[in-house]
């Protein structure tokens, strides 16, 4: 059973999301909150698999709530998905850096919304190639980082992280590296551990900030 927490200051939207989730046999909404501070209290109480957080909320916003969840070792199993009205923007990028597994636009179709919840619960990042391209676009005009942390990765781990940053799935990475999907997942998990990344979303951010992946045209 996938346990979900809903945090949004708009009751009507929360009700709509809950109605969708309640129809699914493998999903349970464990609690709802109307602001980020209340959401943090309920996250610690219920330890959901997925926390759906509105990016703009009173008291504590979604980015700060994500940051606090990511910083708490007791909440390592909570996968944060940011809800936004605006699509990919600077706030969403900040949320990914803070530790969010991905984001959803609130006008998403129901089938995609439910699929996204299941993807997040598995620990996979909600980073479709189109979203990855948005990250690339941001870094076309931004300086990359110093590459700190790269020296801790093996050559195969670096290769796997670079492929993650280009939006490839584990199966596609395995095909590209001519290894099994399990071995590809192992490389990725080891890289996440060495870099202290919560998920694939943070690997993507690291890949561009470190210069492991260079945006086209830069």
Automatic annotation (TrEMBL):
Statement: the UniProt record of this protein carries the keyword Transcription regulation: yes
InterPro entries noted in UniProt: CheY-like_superfamily, NreC/VraR/RcsB-like_REC, Sig_transdc_resp-reg_C-effctor, Sig_transdc_resp-reg_receiver, Tscrpt_reg_LuxR_C, WalR-like
Pfam families reported for this sequence: GerE, Response_reg
Keyword DNA-binding in annotation: yes
Keywords from the named record: DNA-binding, Phosphoprotein, Transcription, Transcription regulation
Annotated ranges, domain HTH luxR-type: 146-211
GO biological-process terms attached to the record: phosphorelay signal transduction system; regulation of DNA-templated transcription
GO molecular function, one term: DNA binding
Residues recorded as bearing 4-aspartylphosphate in the entry: 54
Location of the Response regulatory domain: 3-121
PANTHER family: TRANSCRIPTIONAL REGULATORY PROTEIN NARL-RELATED, TWO-COMPONENT RESPONSE REGULATOR
Official protein name in the record: Response regulator transcription factor
Lineage per the UniProt record: Bacteria, Bacillati, Actinomycetota, Actinomycetes, Streptosporangiales
